[in-house]
## 1
Amino acid sequence: MRNNLKKELKSVFDVPPPTRKNQFLSQLNYPKTSRMDFIISQLGYIRKRTWILSMLLFIGILDGLYFYKVSNSFIWVVSSILPFISLSSISEIVKSTTYNMKELEMSCKYNFLQICLVRLGVLGATNFMLLIGILILFVGKTDYSFIRLGLYITTPYLLNCYGSLYVINRLKTRMIMYVCCGVTAFVSVLNTLLTIQINEIYTEMYWLFWPMSFIILLLLSAREIVKLIRKMEELQWNLSLTA
Amino acid sequence: MELIIDRLTKQYENKIAVDRISLTLKEGVYGLLGPNGSGKTSLMRMICGVLKPTSGEVKFNGIDVNEEEYRDSLGYLPQDFGYYPEFSAYDFLLYMASLKGLTKHRAKDKASEWLELVGLLDVAKKKIKTFSGGMKQRLGIAQAMLNNPKILILDEPTAGLDPKERIRFRNLISRLGKDRIVLLSTHIVSDVEYIASTILIMKDGQIIHQGSLDEIISVIEGKVYECSVDSKMTDYLIANYPIINIREESDKTFLRLVADKSPCEGAVAVPAVLEDLYLYYFNEGVNRDE
């Protein structure tokens, strides 16, 4: 009976067209994502190749540890490859500049600075876990202590971080990624040459060199990261800004 | 709804790009008109929080430009924007929606809705790198509108569009200005003339005129003259009056100029248009149609 009444009413009266529908809808407060949702959403926007490269390196080292004897040359090979992991992370940081997305991202609710901090945090944590994983696997196979081996492996990595951040903070070109590639290649070759030329590089003779280099590079990298964060707060001046 | 710009200044080394601009904007379309280098882009970037002012402040309903809540109310189409190469139009909108804090479900709805509104639904899955300039601009406005912003800033939105696309774009912007603040910059006079309820004319970092089209034009109303004169008179008029247009005809020269009273015999007063005012202020050289 009630349904029939509804049908009757519908057939008798025309439904009035909605007025000020858009104004009404625009006044509604739609649910927004939380900061955690934002962080999770950004994980999906880190390029697959970054994850794949990290995985390949890890698998390669596992393979090396399983099939070959760990010698000094194995250490320099690993320490010369690791800067390329940091390069793939750096490429995630500079991709907004490379593809001219920076200005758009800066104007959003979760802005460029927040996006970069998420990328830096996620990739930094991944790289850190990767390094720790490699070190744990290494330690049992060599006579070196965990810390000593850590210094040998992470110092070239840190040198590359510092070099790349130095470049990012000073160059404004969109070709910045190519310069970072050059820095990584230089660090990798330099590390190889040093370990080949100086036979005693992993001996007691150079014990002071490694911790000193590590600490200096860590401080310099931290300084460059602070500079980078400050730079991310606004567009840097160039001629187009006066237009 | 009120966007207050208070003594906003931007100085780059020894150049003042924006010089103590104060404005109060309410709902409607505002057209920012000025030549290249007049400070339009710097002003808009400061309103979007992309650029830090040297001094002054920008507030929307009491919320400072640096706050997240302000950016939540903002839609911005920069003069020149890029995209990640792997993105399709739909991916791009979903990415922008994630930065604007839209939930996944709402992001999908809004992306589809705006792709349809800007006529890109049929190419939603295509890579942006295959798009024409007009399609990219339409995608740009779609991303700006995803969060249903209260403030919409469009920097040269019609640059690079063909006439048909421009008209379509103008109509879209007109509709968007009904219940939000829309500020668009351009140096295409007709765009502003058709859609802006308030026109702001910017020169050397300052707003030199603001008002409705009629108010703006009233500055030179009754002072625009057209005449066809010989070469001697042409030289005299060029030397003594601001010339808006010159066209060589078979035996005479046609001039459109600004003068307080009739500049020569045969000169006819004609209704002023916005372009006259624009050229009066900004045309430093004289265009001669050979």
## 2
Amino acid sequence: MNQTSSIIEIRNLRYAAHGHPIFEDLSIDFPSGRVSAVMGPSGTGKTTLLRLITGQARADAGTIRVAGSSLAELSRDELYVLRGRMGMLFQNGALLTDISVFENVAFPLREHTKLPERLIRQIVLTKLQAVGLRGAAELMPAELSGGMGRRVALARAIVMDPEILIYDEPFAGLDPISMGVILRLIRRLNDALGLTSIVVSHDVHEISSVADVVYLLSGGKVVAQGSPQELHSSKSEIVKQFVGGLADGPVPFHYPAPDYFGALLARDGDS
Amino acid sequence: MFADLWMGLVESLVRLGDIVRFLLRLIAQVPRALPRFQLIIDQVYNAGALSLVIIMLSGLFVGMVLGLQGFQLLQRFGSEEALGTAAAIGLVKELGPVVTALLFAGRAGTALASELGLMRATDQLAAMEMMAVDPIRRVVVPRFLGGVIAMPLLAAIFSLIGIYGAQLVGVQMMHVDSGSFWSQMRASVDLADINEGIVKSCVFGVACSLIAVYEGYYATPTAEGVGAATTRTVVTSAVVVLFLDYLLTAFFL
């Protein structure tokens, strides 16, 4: 992967939230046209990384370049123009609950274009067909299951034909069938639409079947990167712990705490 | 003790500054939100039409109480005919705008705050930002304007129904002369009184709508956060309305 084929470049990123450092010195390149996965234990800042890439949060130091422009230098309006080239699938779908499935998918078109109603209808139905939910167009978001909601959100994310599609935990809380459907959609949309996909997840096996490149984050750094096969055959302790799902290892089972016996033997009021 | 008081004061001032900055941000977006007129109409319906029943019922009862109390008081001076004037002035200048604003904060303000808070909690606002749609322009400004437009209309309806309620008690039950009830009202309520009521209800409309959208938009995205934001909307609105009412009354004197 050389530099020229990267659509997102992160250099020496530093970011802290509520006084806790999340990223100290993070550098990642996301290659264009591929499915990249960002994995890591809960609390390593995977979702935060997405918020930084999309400009929802600002880095404390370092640069993030998306499609050639540095996020820190963009005005609000320029950021909005750039976001027009990105689609994002939120963890819970984030559908607008007061309008129907059809109107949810049509929402970006109505906001950004003056297309005639007939054309909007055609585009929306094509996108819903792509996620297999054309028949659900008239339902309200509350009537959808979790997996269906996420597929509708996916249709909405691709309705403006973005170049970059970002998935935040797309498999969380889904049954195996819905999970399989989403997996297939990630691959198919990436290849059919010529997108760059970034998937944040901790479902090792699901992601291994779909990603071209995997980045493993831990402690605010990239601790391993490569193809899923490379990761599976890695000798690194942290990679083995994560891929194998071991309870203890470099990522400790216990949250930092004072001495166990001392705490058990302490009387009320002692500490 | 004094340090706590001082900190409390400083915090309130910081919050006031935040709210004013938020208002300026809303106003800056108004020109871009106005062309989407249908969105504003929808919100006038939500804040206004849906509050009609509670406003009309309350107006009727307040007017009836005013009729009863006013009659009792005026009878002592043998001037029951002035009941129309008393009721109309009381309603148009004070009770109409103030009680409507308090009810508006409870009915429409809480609905606005919890709706926006839940949109924040369920990532709907973030999703809009990601679709390159400014939630301030698309969601907040129409709701704010809807409230600002609805509030004076509701206050006018409240006063109207209130006067009818006073008439119901005074003329129909207590047998005040109908002719003098209406003619005295018409002779002594002048445009300045009505203007005062209009100005007050407009100011209260801005205050209540602003507090509601501010609290909702910046609510902590959790169940407790949205609940707390809703409560703060009612409490802050009530205090601010009563305080502004004193200032405006003093100003119009």
